[in-house]
Amino acid sequence: MPNYEIPEKLPEDFVEWANIVMGEILGSPNYKDPSKRFYGKLTTSKIRRFLSLVIDILNEERIRTQDELKPESVRKLMMARVRFAYEAARVDDVRRFVDVSGIMLYIKDIGKSREKFIAFAEYMEALVAWHRYYGGKEN
Fold first, then answer.
1. Each residue's pLDDT tens digit, 7-21
2. pTM for this structure?
C-alpha cells in the first residue's frame, strides 16, 4: 500500500493526484536512476486497456448534456469495475496499481453522475500520461 491515505473521492486536482500515484507505483518521481525504479508487470498497454473501457463510455457521454449517465453507460461502468477486479486478481502489479490509484473507490463514487464520470475518465488519461512520463514500460 502507499505511504499516504487514498482519498475516498477523486480529488479535484486529479491530475496532480495521478502524478503522486504513478510516482508511488513507479518509484519516487524525483528519483534520477531509472534502473532502480519499480516497473514490474504494469505496462502502458495494460493501463491503456483499462482506459479504453472508460473511453468507450466517454465517447457516448461527452456529447450529452444531461446530468446523469445513460443506463447503458452505468452498466458498462459497472462491468469495467468487474474487469479491473479480474485483472487485479491475475497480476499482483496490476492489483497494486488498482489499489494505490483508488480506481475501485472512484468508480463506485460515480454512481450515475455524468460530471464525476468525466472527471474519472480524465483521471485515467492522466494516469497513462504520468506512467509514460516516468518511464513506465511499453509492453
1. 999 999 999 999 999
2. 0.87
